[in-house]
Design goal:
mainly alpha, globular, 200 residues, 7 helices
Length: 200
């Protein structure tokens, strides 16, 4: 299982790194549209329906709209996106907190979660695609942001396996532990320090 996970992660990382560093902005946009499609498929399954055709249809629609909207995104729009993402986070957390003891969420709540989380995913991915198109050394900055996620995941996985004792959120993800979070944060701090030292 671990070997398969490592091989898959390495292959995906090579695709992402190669696309970001060696291909143009359109290829980066398509890459993140595929990632958005996968995330939307999972989100629809968690909130609205598990029926595969509807999940794929909604995910494809959102991804297509995402690609269509990219030429409309400028620096002013991206700031509005940042505020929208922050508001979406707050609304999602408030809904989850209000209904945290419910075994089955009513449809209006699930629909609201879908809409707020969709907005959050949309603005996050648009922000990532915006970076290499509008910032100096934007490709490297985007890659650095991606490595922060990868390093945190690696640190959390291995420290959780080695030292995990205290569950973080057992009702949501039983395998996650507080020790795993601490390991992810610690390895990320080391990575940030190494990049800062290397970049002078």
């Amino acid at each position: 299982m671990l070997k398969q996970r490592i091989v898959t992660a390495v292959l995906l990382a090579l695709v992402v790194i190669g696309t970001i560093l060696f291909l143009d902005a359109r290829a980066v946009a398509v890459l993140f549209a595929v990632a958005l499609f996968a995330a939307m498929n999972e989100l629809v399954s968690l909130t609205l329906t598990r029926k595969l055709p509807l999940r794929l249809l909604l995910a494809a629609l959102v991804s297509a709209l995402f690609l269509w909207s990219l030429p409309l995104v400028g620096i002013r729009v991206i700031w509005y996106h940042a505020y929208t993402g922050l508001l979406a986070w707050v609304l999602v957390l408030l809904l989850l907190r209000a209904y945290r003891h419910n075994g089955h969420l009513p449809f209006p709540v699930r629909l609201s979660l879908f809409l707020f989380a969709s907005a959050l995913l949309w603005v996050a991915v648009q922000g990532l695609v915006f970076i290499p198109r509008h910032f100096p050394q934007g490709n490297w900055l985007l890659l650095y942001l991606m490595t922060l996620v990868w390093v945190a995941d690696i640190g959390a996985y291995f420290s959780g396996r080695a030292f995990g004792r205290h569950k973080l959120a057992p009702s949501i993800s039983p395998g996650k532990t507080i020790e795993g979070v601490a390991g992810g944060l610690a390895l990320n701090l080391l990575w940030i320090s190494a990049v800062w030292w290397y970049s002078g």
